[in-house]
What does this fold into?
Amino acid sequence: MIIFTGAGISADSGISTFRDANGLWEKHDIDQVCNFQTWKQNFDLVHAFYSARRVQLGTVQPNPAHEMIARLQARYGAVIITQNIDDLLERAGCKDVIHVHGFLTEIRCTNTGCNKTWDIGYTAWDSKSQRCGSCLSLRGPKPNVVFFGESAPRYAIMQQLFASLGQEDVLLVMGTSGNVVDIGTVASYVPAQTILSNLETDKGGDVFGPVLDDAHFNHVLHGRAAERAIDIERLVETLLT
Ligand code: NAD
Ligand code: ZN
It folds into this structure.
């Protein structure tokens, strides 16, 4: 079993998604705070934005969707792949979560030849005075989050995992619009039983691209992640026993 998740599973914990915000994320233009080409021009703003997200993360809790995913992993050995940068799956007990878009509590030094990566917990990063602990660069440290236009090294393992799905397997997709990773196309070709759960049927494309089509999935259970968690768990039990 593979469980592929997005921002929607953390919405019920109080972390807003891209979609809810209509192209703005916590009132900021995503292009200004999540763009690898321009992030250094917006250096202080980028750090202030992710610092606020990081401090907020320390104040929220996993919800029943994260806990349900942890139970499915414990019971079926599910591989968990997430686009989320938060740590709520880990706090619910999930193990070895593959974060394809990075991890909010980490800073990575982008100074040439350095690449030091370290965890700063739920604290703010003071971009005007804090430096890389290894090369002492002031402008190298970057939130360890994959920005638009930046390479995502874990996509390769993610694609291998999707390609490994067989007829007896289950692919559960929860809380993602499918606009950043085109999971709708993946669901349309894998031989596994596929389940989609989002807030509602995707009504149309937006600035981020194509639509996630319910018709690409064998089973569709829309609604709030925390409320549908039990139904999803029961469905998986039916499919895997
Ligand atoms: P998205 O914002 O594009 O789509 C969110 C999806 O979640 C939508 O399909 C929506 O129907 C669904 N949703 C919203 N509220 C829900 C709820 N209460 N219950 C169930 N589903 C709900 O998110 P995405 O597809 O994950 O892509 C956005 C990118 O943004 C990702 O790459 C991710 O790194 C980043 N992001 C992460 C977080 C986080 O870590 N929590 C939050 C915002 C954005
Ligand atoms: Zn460094």
